[in-house]
Amino acid sequence: MAARLLTYGFFLSALACTPTTAPGPSAEGNTADLGPNAHLNGRRPFPDDNPWNTPIDHEPVDPNSDLLIASIGADANLHPDFGANWNGGPFGIPYVVVEGSQPGVAVSFLYHDESDPGPYPIPDDAPIEGGADSDGDRHIIVIDRDNWMLYELFDAHPTGNGWQAGSGAIFDLNSNALRPAGWTSADAAGLPIFPGLVRYDEVEAGEIEHALRFTVNSTRRAYTYPARHWASSSNDPSLPPMGMRVRLKADVDISTYPEAAQVVLRALKTYGMILADNGGNWFVSGAPDPRWDDDAMNSLKQLTGRDFEVVAMGELVTP
User: Fold this and answer.
1) CA 124 to CA 126: how far, in whole Å?
2) Which of 13, 137, 246, 319 gives a 20 to 30 Å CA spacing to 266?
């Protein structure tokens, strides 16, 4: 996670949303497969009214949209940060689905004051982002399919009798509860990572029913709902805050793109994508899979920042 800066003023803040225990209709009767990057078989994380699952295609455009798009790069290309073959194998942010009986293991945290203590049900075959020898973000994502819980770690390293990580967060996938205001997660914005990934099982099924996750190089020292944390020292109003949501403009013609790419583009029009971390400009996150058609996904690079617009934001939280 690039340029992670912690804030400490809001540790005792209440959660912003009252949890709900009713899963959305898309979760009923569907059981996820098990293992690394397993199919969820149509089961969607979080309730239907969760921000990740809410269509924004008819929401107004933010009055500062042009300024914010320009700061990221109006002529910069969209970049799918996932695929089937890069540097010898599939790349992206992996995840693993486990049973509810998966034993929990202890995790120690560098940023322990803003991390959920666990234990975390990390199996022996849990994939690490970038591989076991990675010097990158080293995310680990675990979905407990039986209890419908999400466990995420940033900068995770095995210690022999457990794990150590920079930060970690646990999310009830039946709930709309947010992290306390000012808290990070395994992501700079204090958001869950998994619900924003482009996954092969959804593209194969022909529909993505949630917002996507993206990064930009420079962000503002501010965040907006549903984000809970910032990761910048700049107060430049032209820079985007964490949690900012953009969508593909309605008049962008997607009919000439490969069908797999069109699935992603339809989601970008309907649900948009949420700014979650510092990284490459217009980098869209996805899960690795050897079955990705890299040519189809790379067609997304034809799009540039000017094909997007910022959805009207609510109140900004600043230091």
Assistant:
1) 6
2) 137
